[in-house]
Amino acid sequence: MLTEERHHLILQLLKEKEVRKLQEFVEATGSSESTIRRDLSQLEEEKKLIRVHGGAALIKQKRSEPSMMEKSNQHAEEKKRIAMYAAKFLRKGDCIYLDAGTTTLAMIPHIEEKDITVVTNSITHAAALTEKGIQTFVTGGFLKANTRALIGQGALHGLNQYSFDKCFIGVNGIQLNVGFTTPDPEEALIKRTAMKQSLETYVLADRSKFNETAFAHIAHLNQAVIITDKLEQELLHSYKEKTSIKEVEA
Amino acid sequence: MLTEERHHLILQLLKEKEVRKLQEFVEATGSSESTIRRDLSQLEEEKKLIRVHGGAALIKQKRSEPSMMEKSNQHAEEKKRIAMYAAKFLRKGDCIYLDAGTTTLAMIPHIEEKDITVVTNSITHAAALTEKGIQTFVTGGFLKANTRALIGQGALHGLNQYSFDKCFIGVNGIQLNVGFTTPDPEEALIKRTAMKQSLETYVLADRSKFNETAFAHIAHLNQAVIITDKLEQELLHSYKEKTSIKEVEA
DNA sequence: CCAAATTCAATCAAAATCATTCAAAAACAT
DNA sequence: ATGTTTTTGAATGATTTTGATTGAATTTGG
Questions:
Q1: N or C, fewer C-beta in 10 Å, chain B?
Q2: Membrane-spanning residues where (chains A, B) (predicted)?
Q3: Which chain D positions have some atom within 7 A of a protein CB?
Q4: Which CATH number is associated with domain B68-247?
Q5: Which residues, listed in sequence order, are joined to residue A97 by a DSSP beta bridge?
């Protein structure tokens, strides 16, 4: 077995399981202990993994993000279910727009179809997507500090270069007669534009967003399909008349 | 069997399996070991594959350019000194372009003048800048996995929206008669364009970049000021005739 | 805290692979 | 047909990789 192959296999095994014993590599490759040790040293040198006593561990670069982190804890479970369900709408070859925000971010780990092209206005999302081996384009624009979203003329301009099969956006408010809303007018403009360029629009929203209104208007209810968790019958009924709602399946 | 046929077959086999032993090629073609070795050398020359001990591997971006992580450790001290010195060139109100790359990234912690506007094609840089409270714009474009730089038409397009007082770029090679070079032609184009839009250009380069040539040409020596560490007298002299060099002060 | 067990880095000789050279064979031009 | 160039395969010694062995370092269990 060639050195390259071994290295590849070692990293592959580590991807499946974060920490592995040296002996596991020995068995998997059929090489001697010495050889595996050398391999691990090399790969550590290349920053591909970290050696630990008795084996090796996957390298982890955690990007902590306080403002983002705080948010993502609220309704975390609900968001995760919604995101996982939304990810199932992706098809081979799709070109999609992925909006900034915690709910759309939660989609990324659950994307199974790798053969898609994604455009996003969030550098956090972009990094995560590329990490997963997904073709990713960034809109460009002014980088807003607290949400890490790209906004402004630059973002709008970048966005106008593309057309999408589907777009997935997050909102802060959903109201029967108002439609979808978000606090920042600049972000609203971006979301609206993305929807305009897209054949289908999915709005990801947990229960807390319903019957709320934020400052800036994005679009009317009938312009998107809402993906959400199980709603109360009453609420669901009143909205079903105005728009299409997909509820997370059990 | 013709040379052409063998080459084709070799590449074909590599497409099926990323890494192959030399012996596999020998058997598949019925040629001698020597012949296959010659073939592999040639194909490597043509950048169709890379040779590894015992065989050959399919070309992968990953291998041709060391990853960000890997790079950041090489010449770390020297880079830091250069970056710190370069940061002193910033003036209140400046609009600058900050190129992707580890040396330019090292500038960010040392930026004292907060009243500047920065455009960058690296999402890593953008995040760090915004974190520091600096107005930051991102070019947009395709996100390259290993360097986290934005490239392609989108990046070019975004870049064209701005003009700069100064731009700070990194390079991989500096050669007297060749000028500045970098491995990826796409990135070279971005760098070149940024320089065009800028009144002054600073190239940040540690000693190891001198008398090296990478694949893609960026610009000639006289089109930028080089910021570097202390050089050997001989080297310094030969370059001083062709361009302007700022050496890190003690 | 110590001692046994495990894991480690360093060293070395054997095996595999490598670049280089050279002469024979093949393809080519004249 | 003859001489020239190119391609090929074998032989060479150099280089790299490998697995076993050693004693040192670390972890584990009492």
A1: C
A2: none
A3: 7-11, 16-21, 26-27
A4: 3.40.50.1360
A5: A119, A167
Return the closest-CA partner of residue B200 out of B128, B96, B114: B96
pLDDT at A21: 92
Which chain C positions come under 7 Å from a protein C-beta? 6-11, 16-21
State the DSSP H helix or E strand holding residue B17, giving kind and residue range, or none if neither: none
Question: Is the pLDDT score of A172 beyond 80?
Answer: yes
Q: Is the pLDDT of residue B214 over 90?
A: no
CATH of domain A66-247: 3.40.50.1360
Contact B139, A124 (CB under 8 A): no
Looking at chain A, the whole-number percentage of residues with pLDDT higher than 70 is 93
- Backbone angles phi and psi of A226, in degrees to 5: -90, 130
CATH 1.20.120.530, domain A3-58, yes or no: no
Q: What percent of chain A has pLDDT over 90?
A: 66
Work out the number of other CB atoms within 10 angstroms of the CB of residue A41: 12
Question: Is the minimum CB–CB distance between B148 and chain A shorter than 8 Å?
Answer: yes
Helix (H) or strand (E) holding A52: strand A49-52
Task: Give the torsion through C-alpha atoms of B117, B120, B126, B130, to 10 deg.
Answer: 0
User: Which residues numbered 10-29 in B keep a CB inside 8 Å of some CB on A?
Assistant: 18-19, 21
Nearest to B62, CA basis, from B147, B125, B142: B147
Report whether A235 contacts A196 (CB < 8 A): no
Residue of B87, B100, B116 lying closest to B190 (CA atoms):
B100
Four-residue CA torsion sign, A165, A167, A168, A174 = negative
End-to-end CA distance of chain B: 64
The CATH code for residues B3-59 is: 1.10.10.10
SS (H, E, C) A168-230: EEECCEEECCCEEEECCHHHHHHHHHHHHCEEEEEEECCHHHECCCCCEEEECHHHCEEEECC
DSSP string covering B131-153, please? Answer: HTT-EEEE--EEE-TTT-BEEHH
| Cβ-defined contact of B137 to A136 (cutoff 8 Å) | no
